[in-house]
Amino acid sequence: MSDASYLHDEQAPRISVASPSDYFALLKPRVMSLVVFTALAGLLLAPTPPHPLIGFASLLAIAVGAGASGALNMWYDADIDALMTRTRKRPIPAGRLDPETALAFGLVLATLSVFTLGYVANWFAAALLAFTILFYVVIYTMWLKRWTPMNIVIGGAAGALPPMVGYAAATGEINLASVVLFAIIFMWTPPHFWSLALLRSEDYARAGVPMLPNIAGEDRTRLEILVYALALAPLGVAPWLMGFASLAYGLVSIGCGIALVGLAARVFRQREGEAARLAARRMFLFSILYLFLLFLVLVVEQTAHIFALI
């Protein structure tokens, strides 16, 4: 199912009564901020950073592309969003915005973002951004999310691409450093979302979304979280080992990696009651901090390096 049930719901409004805040919510602003932040890291890794205006315009286009993906995701997922406690107050299932308007809004933003990035930066970066949007909307939202418990693993590629898009916007190509940043986010995504899935398994079951805890069981999910955390921790140190991040980054990534593995181990051990929920919640929240700190250090270091060259 997509949004079809809303088109035939007699209680659903025929005319949009949405406020500007509802359109902003369609953009998934928290996801958008993460996309911009990681794309900025990729852009700053360029040997010769672009002119500030070009860099700003490129990041704005990438942000709009991320927002378009969010809007199209909410349009297609309106039926299952209505069944989940976490998402039922979103603009479409809450009846404040009709699906056709959300679809048009997302398509316009997607087109605008791709052509803007192509015009201000280069068409390779624009093509990569278009691929990112298509992958998230078509491959992840329309296919993987509803058909396989590996939806987060494969679909995580869309969320991992922004550093490569940022680097491509600055250089017209991709390099190994941007691929490493892609790999970090790609490996980070499953333990992050599976921790949330442990907390929201009833929601996902009600909506019929085959998340790993509902298909393979919570114990298997806990094991997978630990395995991915063990793989992610050394990968997070790779930018320092490969020479495009400083010792400060290395120390931060090592410390955060140890903490991440420790929390994942606690999720693996705590399997019942409130202790299990608390462990999953701590893992979920720290995973956000983990990714933020790693990319923050990269951004600060690269910014300092650029100013030192001026």
CATH level 4 superfamily of the largest domain: UbiA prenyltransferase
| CATH architecture group name of the largest domain | Orthogonal Bundle
Q: Supply the helix-strand structural class.
A: mainly alpha
Report the β-strand fraction as a percent range.
Answer: under 5%
**Helix content range:** over 70%
Q: How many E-type strands?
A: 0
- Strand-and-helix sequence, N→C? HHHHHHHHHHHHHHH
**Low-confidence parts, pLDDT < 50 over ≥5 residues?**
1-14
By CATH, the topology of the largest domain is Tetracycline Repressor, domain 2
Number of helical segments with 4 or more residues:
15
How many structural domains? 2
- What is the overall shape? flat
CATH level 1 name of the largest domain: Mainly Alpha
Account of the 3D structure:
- It is a single chain.
- The chain has 310 residues and is mostly helical.
- It folds into 2 domains: 1-174, Tetracycline Repressor, domain 2, CATH 1.10.357; 175-310.
- 78% of the residues lie in helices and 0% in strands.
- The chain is built from 15 helices and no strands.
- Helix 8 (151-160) crosses helix 10 and helix 9 (162-171) runs antiparallel to helix 10 (176-199).
- The protein is flat and about 55 Å long.
- Pathway: Porphyrin-containing compound metabolism; heme O biosynthesis; heme O from protoheme: step 1/1.
- One of its GO terms (molecular function) is protoheme IX farnesyltransferase activity.
